[in-house]
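WARN  no MSA supplied for this record, continuing single-sequence
INFO  ligand: adenosine-5'-diphosphate
INFO  echoing inputs
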Amino acid sequence: MEFEKIWQSVLGEMEVQVSRANFATWLKNSRLVDNRDGVFFIALPNNFAKEWVENKYHKNILGIVRTIDPSVKKIEFMVDGHLVGGIKKSPTKEIASKLENQIGLEFRVDPTTNLNPKYTLASFVVGPSNELSFAAAEAIVQEVGTKYNPFFIYGGVGLGKTHLLQGIGNEIVAHYGGKVRPRYVSSEKFTSDIVWAIRNKRMEDIKKKYRDVDVLIIDDIQFIGGKEKTEEEFFHTFNALYENNKQIIISSDRPPQSIPTLEERLRSRFEGGLITDVGYPEYEMRVAIIRKKLQEMNRALSDQVVDIIAKKVKKNVRELEGIVNKVVFYQDKKGVDVSDRIATEIVDSSIQNFSRHINDTQVIKAVAEFFSMEMIDLVGRSRKKEVVEPRQIAMYLLRDILGVSYPSIGEKFGRDHTTAIHSYEKVNREINKNASLNQKMILIKSLINKS
Ligand code: ADP
Ligand code: MG
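INFO  complex generated
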């Protein structure tokens, strides 16, 4: 299997283990460059990122890598093509050319549009959880700038927002050639451009860059919220484009009204356009996505194995892809079809890394520890606000991680099973929309894992 695929599964897991901001800042732009003699070579965009990842995430990465390829002994980090540290050699031609191949045609981002051609509308699997968003995407290609402006799409991590946004951009290029010019940018990049422009007194260049387009696509807008100067500039850019009937497309991990730091005037602008969401894919769709990915990889897995994966990996398409890659990788390596038992093992060891020995007390204890409270209060009768959220989270996790039945969850908390259902559903609904809740969950889960 190609490095890109392996690395994607590693990143898929890292994404679950670290905070979203850390993931976006340090890991997103990393690459697996080479794998030889038991050493994985990981490239990072700059020295700063290299040191950070090396210090903070070395162990986690090695752990994950070993679940994919137990023969790996060591990881070497490097800056782009240049080996740093461990190996005191300048980059060999071999590695440089491998790097080229890895980035390959498929992943060559167009420097003017900043779009990655691998994300197309055609390769996007449509189902109940995203059909409205997909219909909007198709409609926008037909009516650029006029009807659905701005278009705002929101939903949890790994559910296809970036794919859809870039798909619209690529489709517009395919449809109109150079006549309609899209530009894609992440909100982190937008922010760093503004900061750079202020520092270097080049604001005019940046204004031109973002205003001289027909379609501006901004990904993960929630990262702009609260950064005053960036928000200000974005607002002006937004207005300039909007008044000229240019299409604006925005994504976020939550709806505009839930981005607390977003200025009111921006929020109301967003609300004036079309807003759709993407949710968790249901079973049939997960099967369809797995099949699509297999087809793209030119690989096959048995129906039972597809079913095993689809039944277990529910909330993140990136994670789903990562696990498919892992299973395919295993199968390629062994040269025989992967059995149901092995597939189950691979999936179980990948999802969230929870081991079998975890019990309900450990879950409740971790929640109490996270919220700095006593376990006795968590399971007690108090209705105080500061106890309610932790308690609902604890109930949710018991169900989510351990599959405890609602009546026995209720019992543990001296409540009725309907309370347990209500708590589970409430948290389950919110987790997809509320980044801070999501963040708490990740931290609590890591506490559980450590216990
Ligand atoms: P988000 O931006 O919402 O975090 P991405 O767009 O990056 O998610 O999607 C994560 C991965 O899952 C990508 O590789 C993407 O191609 C894939 N993916 C997500 N949804 C779909 C879908 N409906 N059909 C095909 N692939 C999908
Ligand atoms: Mg995204």
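Strands lie at 31-36, 39-44, 74-79, 82-83, 151-155, 182-186, 215-219, 247-252, 274-278.
INFO  checksum written, moving to next record
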